[in-house]
Amino acid sequence: MASERESFDLSGPLHLTSIDWQNTQHRRSVAACLVQGVYILERDHQEEREGPQALAPPWWEFFHFKLLRKLVDDVGFSIFGALYEFKPPPSLCNCPSERSPCYVIAFRGTLTKYDSVSRDLELDVEVIRNGLHRTSRFEIAMQAVRNMVAASGPSNVWLAGHSLGSAMAMLAGKTMASSGNYLESFLFNPPFVSAPIERIQDTRVKHGLRFAGSVITAGLTLAMKAKQQQQQQQQQHRSQPEDEPFTTMAAWLPGLFVNPADDICSEYIGYFEHRKKMEDIGAGAIERLATQNSLGGLLMHAMGKQAAPEPPLHLIPSANLTVNLTPSRDLKEAHGIHQWWRDDLQLLSEVHRYK
């Protein structure tokens, strides 16, 4: 049975009858609705709703998008993503739309109903284990992104995702950025794999924990790099030094949309605030090392449990961070995609660039 939240007529931003692509609120709302369209595509599939009974199409057709392709997982065959093309009617073609996308690739998060739940939860575990890049679902997503960018160019493609889908979009965006292709990205409630330090009320305790973590992480990073350099010298490797991957991605500025009441993503607030504080107290060099690495991964490497620490998939050098300060009734609302197309939000946005 369909819920009220699945119906665009009951839950969608019906006030957006005319989209100003220069307006950040409009762009955010459209991107969020296209992600919701993927959720409802899979719900239509599960409920066998077709034709006039299908609830998904209004979530993209209202904004003049066309569904080009569904992205289907090879395990369980659930719909986890969609490729949309912006197809405005002739009456709108003369309107200025410099910042409108030509194509949007959107990814849904976890659905806790029917056949998709076991596969989605399996991928949630891979996010925690830093192994999402090794899954077949991500391979399918990445191939779709590469093909679209190759066909139309990076400036014409948007990425969007929510929760698990946000992790997919972030990883796809990072992969493209590492080769110099910077895609406009809307990452809603992306999971941050860490203890929820942001929940601590005492700011001194919170900053002290972050400072200690940064010093330890930076120290382990330096030790690991010194060991690797020594091994290279012993093997007489004299190759030219390569750019640090983290530095290479610094020019990519995705939009991160988080809620402080959502423990799944709220740590991004502290992650970027702490970087700024470390710069202010003259400890920027420490933080530039620490911000690239996971303390857990470095400790596993130091104890010999892991050959080499893999780059944490959830860490990014730069972002336009938007925090929803509007009070949430519960965690479900704080983590939900629906908050991001409301027009009455109390938002705080700040650009964080890796230096």
Described by the principal axes of the CA atoms, the overall outline is globular
Cα separation of the termini: 51 Å
The CATH architecture classification of the domain at 4-92 and 99-197 and 252-280 and 320-350 is 3-Layer(aba) Sandwich
Spatial order of the strands forming the largest sheet: 1-2-3-4-5-6-7-8
Counted by DSSP, the helix tally is: 12
Biggest sheet: strands, sense, closure?
8 strands, mixed
Low-confidence stretches: 208-224, 236-243, 294-307
Number of E-state strands: 8
The helix/strand series, from N terminus to C terminus, equals HHHEEEHHEHEHHEHHHEHE
**Secondary-structure class:** alpha/beta
What is the CATH C-level name of the domain at 4-92 and 99-197 and 252-280 and 320-350? Answer: Alpha Beta
Percent of residues in β-strands: 5-15%
- The average pLDDT score comes to 81
Helix content: 40-55%
Which fold does the CATH topology of the domain at 4-92 and 99-197 and 252-280 and 320-350 refer to? Rossmann fold
Specify Rg, calculated over alpha carbons: 21 Å
